[in-house]
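Quick start: what a row looks like.
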Amino acid sequence: MPFPVDEKYIIETESELSVKFPTDFKKRMMEENGGEIESEDFYFQIHPFFDKSDKKRISRTCNHIGLETKNARQWNDFPENGIVIGDGGSGDLIFLQHNGDGILTDEVYLWDHGEIEKIAETINEFD
């Protein structure tokens, strides 16, 4: 169940990963840290930002964006500039990426076992 997150945890993740998240993504996550998105073609669980405010939130956010990105980077064909924001449960991931400057674009991409496809111009297409 998603819940709000304090912006300081988003900033911590940005620092950890050396990126800046898009404004729309940050706003959405500040209201609902995690949750799911779906369309006719896709269903994904959104990874939360790691929230260390209490034991319950630590437990609920243990599969956070920073950890899931580090795990994905262990795979040879995951994009070096990709930041994992969710998964479909069968090895497929959704991610944001940057052009080498650390500023993540709004576009949402699907990584399906090495195949990459842009699936949305912004996370808000899944509202």
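That is the whole record. The chain is about 25% helix and 25% strand. The beta strands are 36-38, 43-46, 82-87, 92-97, 108-112, 115-120.
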